[in-house]
Design goal:
heterodimer, A: about 220 residues, 8 helices, B: alpha/beta, six-stranded mixed beta sheet, four-stranded antiparallel beta sheet
């Protein structure tokens, strides 16, 4: 096994192009997860039993099946019933949906951690439901959620190579196609690992900072 | 200044409604699941009256305050506040259960101070007080803050406006909570065991504020307490509750020196034995 610097330099631009897709998929997936997660969390809090149960079951179902299977389903099976999605869109929806179920748990925990007395004080001071959420509950519930949510963001980022299975040209897929045409695996795979590592390390530092800044104060 | 405001509100009210009860409770029932807490309760409160609700725990005193504040729903019967039904409203001539808009409207009449203060921990002392007037009554920030400072002065915390609740002692928190409730200028104030969560040496400073409030304003006040000495000094009328009903009521003098019912006597004896002053 020998390392060819020349070859590594040659393939870096195409891998960086893949990295761009990886980052886009992560960010869009996170946005979907953040919004859908809130929807799941609110549905599960619904006073309507049927709605709450259905949402609970759906969350359990999505969590209980592998992301890879879900991605295959969205990209290869849905076209059978006429839903044809571009690869990146399918990937973003799949990852977003999957991580929404985790985000929903974080939201739920954060909201439930706000003392019942806060709801009562808001009502006793005659705030509307909307004002109660925006001025009393969310400002207390959100900060402790941030480290946990950031943690899932990082986890999702590291799972993006799964998207290569549904033809998204993210970094892993670019590396694979390089390797397949040149029969050299060392450089592309090492570089993919290094790029993931660099971004992860930066993210972990950011995460630590978030934890210090917003972590649950005792 | 504060006193002046409340007196002005009070005397205006005096003119038209001196004799009509400000709170009218009729055949009220409340159950939690199969447990009946309030069973066929009726009583009236007059404008400006200071009422103490006493009785063993589980006798339903706190539940009554919570129903008045619309923190609990009622299971049956009727509550009227300022001449209007609290949990009912008329629509097309028929009486229907109140919707959130009606409850919101009715809550303007009522303020509440809680056992555990329930200050907003993410907001400074002054923001705790100004939040609701600004949001629910459209008071401008400058006016809300001026009023908040007057209230803080009244509760003896003028130097704490920039503090966060976590930096205050229990007694200070409760005084801020009183100021927060007063800022909305309710006609009726509910005090739910406001000194029960306090260290003994902090009780007095809160009671002091409430005494002053009772003496200086015409607000109607309902007080649930285990501080019998304070109830005696504070109240115009004392209701002794037992098992969700009024067992006995009368002036503090009657209830504390010459109770008619055995259960009242037993309760007071136990309370004294537990070290509370009467």
């Amino acid at each position: 096994m020998d390392w060819d610097w020349q070859f590594a330099r040659e393939i870096t631009p195409i891998l960086l192009q893949g990295l761009k897709v990886t980052l886009i998929a992560t960010i869009l997936g996170a946005a979907v997860a953040a919004v859908l997660g809130l929807v799941f969390a609110l549905l599960r809090r619904s006073s309507n039993r049927v709605v709450a149960r259905t949402a609970g079951f759906l969350v359990q179902f999505i969590r209980g099946t592998p992301l890879l299977v879900q991605l295959y389903f969205i990209f290869y099976v849905l076209p059978d019933i006429g839903i044809r999605l571009p690869a990146l869109a399918a990937g973003v929806i799949g990852m977003g949906l999957h991580y929404a179920t985790y985000a929903a748990e974080v939201y739920r925990g954060g909201i439930e951690a706000v003392a019942r007395g806060q709801w009562e004080a808001a009502r006793a001071t005659n705030l509307t439901m909307r004002q109660t959420w925006t001025h009393v509950i969310l400002p207390q519930a959100l900060p402790p959620m941030i480290p946990a949510l950031a943690n899932y963001l990082l986890a999702m980022f590291k799972e993006t190579p799964l998207l290569s299975a549904i033809t998204v040209l993210e970094m892993m897929n670019q590396a694979k196609s390089v390797a397949n045409s040149t029969y050299r695996y060392v450089e592309p795979m090492t570089l993919v690992g290094v790029f993931f590592l660099i971004i992860s390390l930066i993210s972990v530092a950011g995460l630590r900072w978030l934890e210090r800044r917003y972590g649950r104060r005792t | 200044m504060i006193v002046h405001q409340f007196n002005a509100a009070g005397s205006k009210a005096r003119q038209d409604l001196d004799d009509a009860p400000i709170i009218r409770i009729h055949d009220l029932r409340k159950s939690f699941g199969s447990l009946t807490v309030i069973d066929g309760l009726s009583f009236e409160v007059h404008r400006g009256e200071k009422l103490a609700l006493i009785g063993p725990s589980g006798s339903g005193k706190t539940t009554i305050l919570r129903m008045l504040m619309t923190l609990e729903t009622i299971s049956g019967g009727r509550i009227e506040v300022c001449g209007e039904p609290l949990y009912h409203m008329s629509r097309n001539g028929a009486e229907v259960p109140a919707d959130e808009a009606h409850l919101h409207e009715m809550r303007r009449h009522i303020g509440m101070v809680f056992q555990h203060f329930n200050l907003f921990p993410h907001k400074s002392v002054i923001d705790n007080i100004t939040l609701a007037p600004m949001l629910t009554q459209g008071v401008a920030r400058a006016d809300a803050e001026r009023q908040a400072r007057e209230l803080l002065e009244m509760v003896g915390l003028a130097d704490k406006e920039a503090s966060m609740p976590s930096q205050l002692s229990g007694g200070q928190k409760q005084r801020v909570a009183i100021a927060r409730a007063l800022a909305l200028k309710p006609e009726i104030m509910l005090f739910d065991e406001v000194t029960s969560a306090l260290d003994p040496e902090l009780v007095e400073e809160v009671l002091e504020v409430m005494k002053r409030l009772a003496a200086e304003t015409d607000m109607t006040m309902l007080l649930v307490t285990h501080e019998m000495g304070f109830a005696r000094e504070f109240a115009d009328r004392v209701l002794f509750f037992d098992r969700g009903r009024i067992c006995e009521q009368g002036t503090p003098e009657q209830i504390f020196t010459n109770p008619a019912q055995d259960r009242t006597r037993t309760f007071l004896r136990k309370i004294i034995a537990a070290g509370h002053r009467v």
